[in-house]
Amino acid sequence: MAFELKSVVPWGRSLEEYQLMFNLTEADLGRRVVSFGDGPAGFNAGMHALGHRVVSLDPIYGFTREALAGRIRETRDEVLAQVTRNRDKFVWTHIRDVADLERIRMGAMDRFLADYDAGRREGRYVPHALPDRTPYADDAFDLGLSSHFLVLYANLGLDFHLQSLGEMLRICREVRIFPLLDLDANESAVLPGLTAHFGRDYALTVEPVAYAFQRDGNRMLRIVKREGTGA
């Protein structure tokens, strides 16, 4: 079945949020980085402006800038209304209120849209849907990131997550995933299965981060290939 843009609710986060969500150090920013399911995040554009290169993978990158901008406009009010109705599920510290949320998210998405056409030409925004195999060689990247996609969408099932994370670990020496909650702000049902499966062959840790918007959502999963092994 062909991927349809109308099935997507685009919502982008900033470079600064990525740094907090993934405990990214200055050294991390200079590594070979690939990010999965970025959507209209400002992360890639922000990194590019600093002289760093990120490859972002998402099926929405098969659509034009105009189509993505239109879909953002169509869904913005719906998302903000949902947040307003469920404001008690969120932590209003890093983001002060719904108006501040709108400013931050729209700023990140505007930055993405301004960078999108050039980024596609430069191979920084690549259409791809997990768990399909990517076009990259084993260990092509030092660090792979998944923001608000894997683990969060537990309804996709454990097999989907095992296959997707397996492909990420094929091309990355290290993977970080944030958050570890599901869409209802509960600990994701797929997390125990993922940690049990990959914990056998990889160095796996759950670590606190300096960012939280969902309540109890201040942890990330870090998976690192062990030195001297194929895993």
TrEMBL record:
This is SAM-dependent methyltransferase.
